[in-house]
């Protein structure tokens, strides 16, 4: 079969799958169709491998995999392109060569497949919308008067970013993503100051970053799902500490005002506190603060009260898709309040799926919602549940959230691989 326009056929192996002629190849998934759910064709462009046109799945041959160039293929096509020895392969779209070890899971698509559930429902069904694309109510102007001040990154600069953090002292932003160098550091003006955290197998290399935070003493801490560790670097990229304390899957991470690190272990259902001397590279204490959580991922710490908020990812109940729950604990780990998708649905009738969380300076809990493509204020724990959209336009698939020292709100948008900074207008 002939290749579509602009997409050269792979050079080797001879029998590798080639794109069918029925559609031109699409750019890497930007997840624009996820939130909008406007057309069946747009949904297929997102959820199908662009080589074999089979629908992606969470495992096996249909699992979506990233190439270093940013294009995404299914595992089956990736194996075929690599040949029997599976050492080198060429991207069928841009011809960039790479090794099989340089490929990685496409986290945004895997997260989307998790939302859609094992039944493989359509995007409108999963997000609780009609097929006409009518979303929830987060379509109007922002009540908080937040305006987009700056947008950083974009495809090529960032590849499927997963976490963002701000250094309150210097104003620098650290972003974890799936590029060759896993951490990008941006200055307050938006320029890229540093790239570090090589992909590889050395002790301080980062295999699969899931989240990032910056301590008050200026160290970048990353949760690495690839080797189940937590790794710390200085802002020059020098690895200072790697902690492997029997974690199952360390995921969300944030830092207290005293440079202690709070992190979730998604598989173990636990919340940990790490105390370390990052300047000397010595771990002082690793303490489990809470257990029996349900797949905890995103986490944030209030810089004023020390309260901790955690996002739990709940398992499917019958025909219902997965949902999320937000829990807030005091610094002493007393439960202050919680709200789940069902409780929010009573206040605001739409499907809610929370991916990131932060505290503002007044102690309000702020979350991202990929269903309404919005940033939402849930209020203080004693006020739960309220629903106050802060940003309701211009987001595609928000997966990260943090505040800067000047109270600007930073949103990591995996949909267009960018960082968006909002301030009061």
Could you please describe the fold and organization of this structure?
Residues 10-28 have a biased composition (Pro residues). InterPro entries: 6-blade_b-propeller_TolB-like (IPR011042), NHL_repeat (IPR001258), TRIM-NHL_E3_ligases (IPR050952), Znf-RING_euk (IPR027370), Znf_RING (IPR001841), Znf_RING/FYVE/PHD (IPR013083), Znf_RING_CS (IPR017907). One of its GO terms (biological process) is proteasome-mediated ubiquitin-dependent protein catabolic process. By secondary structure, the chain is mostly beta strands. The chain has 2 domains: 44-105, 2-Layer Sandwich (Herpes Virus-1); 147-424, Neuraminidase (6 Propeller). Helices cover 10% and strands 37% of the residues. It is built from 6 helices and 29 strands. It has a 4-stranded antiparallel beta sheet with strand order 6-29-28-27, with no helix packed on it. A 4-stranded antiparallel beta sheet has the order 7-8-9-10, with no helix packed on it. The longest helix is centred in the N-terminal third of the chain and has 10 residues, at 107-116. It starts with 31 loop residues before the first helix and ends with a strand. Residues 1-42 and 128-143 have low confidence and may be disordered.
What keywords describe this structure?
mainly beta; Herpes Virus-1; 6 helices; Neuraminidase; 425 residues; 2 domains; 4-stranded antiparallel sheet
């Amino acid at each position: 079969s002939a290749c579509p326009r602009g997409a050269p056929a792979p050079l080797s192996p001879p029998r590798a799958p080639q794109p069918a002629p029925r559609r031109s190849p699409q750019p890497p998934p930007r997840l624009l169709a996820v939130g909008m759910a406007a057309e069946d064709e747009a949904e297929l462009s997102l959820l199908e491998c662009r080589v074999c046109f089979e629908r992606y799945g969470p495992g096996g041959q249909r699992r979506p995999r990233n190439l270093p160039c940013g294009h995404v293929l299914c595992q089956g096509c990736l194996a075929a392109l690599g040949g029997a020895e599976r050492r080198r392969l060429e991207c069928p779209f841009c011809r960039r060569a790479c090794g099989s070890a340089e490929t990685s899971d496409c986290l945004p698509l895997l997260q989307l497949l998790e939302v859609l559930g094992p039944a493989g429902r359509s995007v409108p069904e999963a997000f609780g919308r009609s097929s006409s694309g009518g979303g929830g109510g987060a379509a109007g102007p922002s009540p908080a008067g937040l305006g987009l001040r700056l947008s950083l990154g974009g495809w090529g600069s960032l590849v499927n970013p997963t976490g963002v953090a701000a250094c309150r002292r210097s104003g620098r932003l650290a972003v974890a993503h799936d590029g060759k160098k896993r951490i990008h550091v941006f200055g307050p003006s938006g320029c890229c100051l540093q790239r570090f955290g090589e992909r590889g197998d050395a002790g301080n290399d980062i295999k699969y970053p899931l989240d990032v935070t910056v301590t008050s003493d200026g160290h970048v801490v990353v949760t690495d799902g690839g080797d189940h560790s937590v790794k710390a670097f200085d802002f020059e990229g020098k690895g200072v500490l790697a902690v492997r304390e029997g974690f199952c899957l360390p995921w969300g991470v944030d830092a207290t005002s005293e440079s202690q690190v709070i992190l979730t272990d998604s598989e173990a259902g636990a919340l940990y506190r790490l105390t370390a001397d990052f300047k000397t590279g010595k771990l002082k204490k690793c303490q489990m603060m809470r257990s029996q959580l349900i797949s905890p991922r995103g986490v944030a710490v209030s810089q004023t009260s020390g309260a901790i908020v955690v996002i739990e990812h709940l398992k499917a109940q019958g025909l219902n898709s997965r949902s999320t729950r937000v829990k807030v604990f005091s610094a002493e780990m007393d439960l202050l309040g919680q709200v789940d998708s069902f409780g929010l649905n009573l206040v605001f009738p739409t499907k809610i799926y929370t991916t990131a969380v932060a505290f503002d300076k007044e102690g309000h809990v702020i979350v991202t919602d990929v269903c309404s493509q919005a940033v939402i204020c849930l209020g203080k724990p004693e006020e739960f549940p309220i629903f106050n959209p802060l940003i309701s336009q211009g987001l595609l698939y928000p997966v990260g959230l943090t505040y800067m020292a000047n109270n600007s709100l930073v949103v990591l948008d995996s949909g267009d691989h960018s960082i968006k900074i909002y301030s009061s207008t």
